[in-house]
Amino acid sequence: MDENNTHIIEIKEFTFLGKSMESVSVIYGIFLIIWGVAVSFLSGSNSLTSFIPSIFGLPILLFAFLTIKFPNKKKLFMHIVVSLGLIVFIGGLDFSRGIIKGTLFNNIWADTSKLMMLITGLVFTFLCVKSFIFARKNK
Known about the structure:
5 helices
C-alpha cells in the first residue's frame, strides 16, 4: 500500500488478452495442429506439406507445456518456442511467391495456409519478443 492506503499491483509477467505467453503458446500450438489437420482433411490433400502447420504446432505445444511443467527451464523452452514461431512466419513468407508469379490462390488451401502462417507467425513472434523485453526490464 502507498501513503493513500491504495493497493499497488506489481505486474511480474507479460500477458496478452489476460493470458501468459506460456498459455498463448499452448493455444497457438493447438491452433496450428488443428489448422493443418483440418486443411488436409477439407482439401483432400495427400501431400505432407498440408500438415506443415501441424508439424510446427506440435513442438510449440510440447515446449509451451514443458515451460508450464518446469518453470525453472522457462527461458530455454520459451526461446525454443519463439524460434519455432519465427520459422512459421518465415514459412509463411512463401505466400509472396504466389504474388510475384501471379499464381496467388491457384491452390486456395495452400495459399490460405501460407497466409495464415505469415500473419499468425508474425503476431506470435512479436508477442514473444515483447514478452522477452518485458522480462528483461522487470528482472
